[in-house]
């Protein structure tokens, strides 16, 4: 299905044979990318496939070890982003790089201020900015402080910033990751406008539906290599996904669960106030039974994170009850909840789950430091802790030189296997798993799924929060959908498609559809 | 692996020291004196037995100060208030010691308990303010330093003044002999000649050693120490792991303050037997430098304390011989702190990169080979 690009003129950007090695990994292995002038070219691939590295090389943030780059037919070699900018390449980062306290205008000119007799020429800056906004349909008030802007507007500031510096080729790194669906539409409108005015856009993403909707050409990367460049008309999302992960797409699946009505976790009318605006959680009811995986779906920021933190005790509930094994735990400390058998696989393992600069064996006891084998009363049991870690490393296939290695040295997948392994080794009654396979490679993903399945078979109750709809549908026994802090639907994964699930998540499908 | 770790651990302090000596030598050259002469003078004076005794005394105080600061640093708490805590504690403990008459061991124990309680309570104020009111501990401890020093001045002039004293020296009443801490000259003299020039090695040195051992055991062998370190390494992960952040902050401040309370005692109990205007100040701030150079590690802080103590003890010779200003030692200490911090970070990066390489190559091994990782247990 690989159709070579048919353009005849010199491509806007051409990378050939790009190789970039980091200690222990080859991030890019002879990657080729050919972007025709005036097209929207998507680069897709899994986390760790080498997309970001490739873009950093193109933008001059990193130097390639091998390979050549041409921009508009001329060979280039950038040693810093400013050289890339001079060559007409601009990048919109996934994490915005804006000064919150400054206005839109000040942010746009920051670092490229027009000056008149040594002072900033605000008048001409404003004129240029308004001109840009008008011609590209990017409407923004130049005097708004950036901190008052919505995410989508901030992104527009970033795009204008890049255009202001004269970029002809725009690189957008996962621009839709932070946007809600309406904002995505708005962004795509802007991108089409830019394309119509002759700009070339390189667009990194892994949401395949979006890619198919906007791109003129799609290059797929897998494990640092170019798999193919295809046209969107010629492929389906499923085919793209297969190209991204290799031939056999691992699919999460579970056997039907045994009939066990014992309720491990019961949440009733749980409400949590937000720091501002509408409540973070509003009257949430849910139950997780023994040996059951309950999936929670939702667009990021609709209360799933708050739900997890409230169950764990990191946030206080304003109203409602949480019961573990029939006993109310709302007034318990985090420690007491964890001692009672609440396991936790955090959404952000580096932030909530690991001591990056501590050795693995000290990480293995994190969260379980009040119990054997890790401690003995007030004393740390070094031998016990180290033995237990050795077992976790072996049983959960954590690839490490040893248990004295610091957690930071491990890859994301191995870090995650350690976190999951330590929670499982403590034999919890209830596991809260938030995005357990986010950002890890396919192999580690399959092993995490297998571990969850096995634990479920042993009677563990699991609350699985995930943004990976295939994962939710494949693993969960029941699916709940959260929207604006409430549970808006309960679905049977056996009869639900990702598309339907997406409809509930965005509120497009009404609540009457809940089964 | 372990050899590499050791070499890397040594590279930073040695490199920092060499760099500091080099830079200070340049400063000496710039002001027109001979660095060679200055260093030789310091070395020859500094290797005399009496200077070593001085070094031991100074290092005892610096070590306690370093440990007090390090306890906070270990959980990212910056207890800048060690200065105020120890001066106030020394004044009140000296007064309390003079006010009572107890059997020998008990008397000393009481004075130590008072000093630790005062230091702890005063540091605890900052801990409470941080937890209950969200006041950053750097601000509150700096402010409280000023409060402590003003309080010391006031108390010494009024209620705690020894008004039987006819001289103009403002001091607290003398602590009776039962409240003195014995000298340990004998301990040293078993190995060396007799210590001359009226120098005496304070027995409080042994207390400092015990504090160091307890600090090590607490940090590495107890659950509370693990909670404290975990909070310092990653407060968010520690919280999710059930560590109560507020309680840990208060606990660390109380502990830091308790050790801070001891800093002045070697001098009070071993030599002065009272608090007067000659009491050594500034050790709390020196403790920050010592903790930084010693990487907040019980052993490292000890090495740093001895090093700084030796520099302080050997420096006075520069006033007597040659024309090198003794302030060069302060410059040297300052540069050591800065370059040590930089060197540690450089070494840290080298170590991280090496570890990442090892881990990446382990990740490529077949499953079976990754398993016997625990073989090097307790190595």
Compose a concise summary of this entry.
The complex is a heterodimer of chains A (515) and B (379). With 515 residues, chain A is α/β, with parallel strands linked by helices.
Euclidean distance between termini CA atoms of chain B: 11 Å
Low-confidence stretches of chain B at least 5 residues in length (pLDDT < 50)? 366-379
Mean model confidence by pLDDT of chain A: 85
What is the first-to-last residue Cα distance of chain A? 40 Å
Please state roughly what percent of the residues of chain A sit in beta strands, choosing from under 5%, 5-15%, 15-25%, 25-35%, 35-45% or over 45%.
15-25%
Oligomeric state of this protein:
heterodimer
The greatest inter-chain interface is formed by: A-B, 57 and 44 residues
Assign the structural class of chain B, choosing from mainly alpha, mainly beta, alpha/beta, alpha+beta, or little secondary structure.
mainly alpha
CA gyration radius of chain B, whole angstroms: 23 Å
Please state the overall shape of chain A, judged from the principal axes of the Cα atoms.
globular
Helix % of chain B is over 70%
Order of helices and strands of chain B: HHHHHHHHHHHHHHHHH
Alpha carbon gyration radius of chain A = 25 Å
Ranges of chain A where pLDDT stays below 50 over 5 or more residues in a row are 1-7, 511-515
- Helix fraction of chain A? 25-40%
Which overall shape of chain B is indicated by the principal axes computed on the Cα atoms? globular
Number of helices of chain A: 17
Mean pLDDT of chain B: 88
Largest sheet of chain B: none
Widest sheet of chain A: strand order?
A: 6-9-10-3-11-12
Count every beta strand of chain A, where a strand is a DSSP E run of 2 or more residues.
24
């Amino acid at each position: 299905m690989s159709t070579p690009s048919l353009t005849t003129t010199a491509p806007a950007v051409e990378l050939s044979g790009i190789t970039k090695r980091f200690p222990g990994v080859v991030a890019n292995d002879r990657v080729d990318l050919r972007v025709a002038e005036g097209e929207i070219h998507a680069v897709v691939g899994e986390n760790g496939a080498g997309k970001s590295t490739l873009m950093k090389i193109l933008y001059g943030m990193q130097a390639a070890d091998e390979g050549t780059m041409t921009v508009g037919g001329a060979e280039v070699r950038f040693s810093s982003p400013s050289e890339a900018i001079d060559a007409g390449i601009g990048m919109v980062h996934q994490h915005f790089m804006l000064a919150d306290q400054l206005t839109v205008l000040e942010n746009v000119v920051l670092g490229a201020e027009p000056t008149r007799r040594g002072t900033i020429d605000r008048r001409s800056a404003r004129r240029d900015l308004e001109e840009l906004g008008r011609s590209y349909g990017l409407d923004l008030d130049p005097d708004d402080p950036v901190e008052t802007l919505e995410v989508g507007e901030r992104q527009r500031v970033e795009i204008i910033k890049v255009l202001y510096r004269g970029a002809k080729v725009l690189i957008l790194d996962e621009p839709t990751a932070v946007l809600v669906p309406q904002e995505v539409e708005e962004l795509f409108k802007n991108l089409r406008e830019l394309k119509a005015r002759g700009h070339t856009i390189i667009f990194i993403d892994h949401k395949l539906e979006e890619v198919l909707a906007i791109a003129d050409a799609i290059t797929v990367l897998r494990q640092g290599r170019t798999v193919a460049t295809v046209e969107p008309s010629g492929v389906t999302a499923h085919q793209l996904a297969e190209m991204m992960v290799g031939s056999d797409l691992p699919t999460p699946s579970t056997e039907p669960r045994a009939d066990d009505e014992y309720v491990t976790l019961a949440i009733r009318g749980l409400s949590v106030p937000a720091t501002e605006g509408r409540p973070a959680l509003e009257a949430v009811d849910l139950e997780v039974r023994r040996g059951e995986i309950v999936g929670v779906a939702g667009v990021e920021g609709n209360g799933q994170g708050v739900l997890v933190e409230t169950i764990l005790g990191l946030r206080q509930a304003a109203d409602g009850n949480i019961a573990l094994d029939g006993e109310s735990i709302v007034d318990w400390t985090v420690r007491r909840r964890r001692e009672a058998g609440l396991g936790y696989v955090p959404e952000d393992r580096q932030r909530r789950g690991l001591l990056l600069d501590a050795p693995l064996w000290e990480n293995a006891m994190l969260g379980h430091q009040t119990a054997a084998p890790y401690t003995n009363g007030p004393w740390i049991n070094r031998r016990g802790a180290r033995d237990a870690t050795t077992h976790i490393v072996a049983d959960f296939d954590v690839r490490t030189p040893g248990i004295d290695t610091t957690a930071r040295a491990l890859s994301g997948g191995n870090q995650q296997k350690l976190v999951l392994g330590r929670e499982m080794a403590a034999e919890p009654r209830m596991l809260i798993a938030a995005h357990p396979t986010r950002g890890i490679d396919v192999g580690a993903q399959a092993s995490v799924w297998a571990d969850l399945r096995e634990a479920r078979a042993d009677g563990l109750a699991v609350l699985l929060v995930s943004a990976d709809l295939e994962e939710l549908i494949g693993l969960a026994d029941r699916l709940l959908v959260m929207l604006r802090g409430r549970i808006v639907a309960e679905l049977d994964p056996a009869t639900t498609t990702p598309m339907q699930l997406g409809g509930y998540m965005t509120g497009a499908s009404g609540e009457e559809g809940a089964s | 692996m372990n050899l590499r770790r050791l070499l890397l651990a040594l590279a930073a302090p040695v490199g920092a020291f060499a760099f500091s000596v080099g830079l200070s030598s340049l400063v000496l050259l710039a002001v027109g004196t001979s660095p060679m002469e200055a260093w030789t003078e310091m070395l020859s004076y500094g290797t005399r037995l009496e200077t070593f005794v001085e070094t031991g005394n100074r290092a005892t105080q610096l070590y306690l100060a370093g440990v007090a600061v390090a306890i906070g640093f270990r959980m990212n708490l910056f207890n800048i208030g060690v200065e105020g805590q120890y001066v106030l504690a020394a004044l009140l403990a000296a007064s309390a010691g003079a006010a009572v008459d107890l059997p020998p061991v008990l008397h000393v124990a009481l004075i130590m308990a008072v000093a630790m309680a005062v230091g702890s309570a005063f540091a605890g104020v900052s801990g409470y303010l941080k937890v209950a009111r969200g006041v950053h501990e750097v601000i509150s401890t700096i402010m409280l330093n000023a409060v402590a020093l003003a309080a010391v001045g006031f108390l010494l002039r009024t209620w705690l003044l020894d008004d039987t004293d006819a001289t103009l020296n403002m001091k607290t009443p003398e602590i009776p002999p039962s409240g003195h801490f014995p000298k340990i000259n004998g301990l040293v003299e078993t190995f060396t000649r007799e210590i001359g020039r009226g120098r005496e090695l304070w027995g409080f040195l042994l207390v400092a050693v015990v504090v160091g051992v307890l600090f090590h055991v607490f940090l590495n062998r107890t659950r509370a120490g693990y909670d404290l370190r975990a909070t310092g390494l990653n407060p968010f992960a520690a919280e999710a792991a059930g560590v109560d952040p507020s309680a840990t902050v208060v606990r660390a401040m109380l502990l830091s303050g308790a050790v801070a309370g001891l800093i002045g005692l070697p001098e009070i109990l071993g030599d002065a037997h009272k608090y007067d205007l000659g009491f050594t100040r500034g050790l709390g701030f020196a403790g920050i430098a010592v903790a930084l150079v010693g990487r907040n590690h019980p052993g490292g802080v000890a090495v740093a304390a001895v090093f700084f103590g030796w520099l302080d003890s050997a420096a006075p010779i520069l006033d007597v011989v040659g024309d090198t200003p003794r302030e060069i030692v302060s410059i040297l200490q300052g540069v050591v702190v800065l370059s040590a911090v930089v060197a540690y970070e450089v070494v840290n990066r080298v170590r991280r990169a090496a570890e990442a390489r090892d881990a990446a190559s382990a990740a490529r091994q077949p499953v079976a080979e990754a398993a016997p990782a625990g073989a090097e247990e307790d190595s």
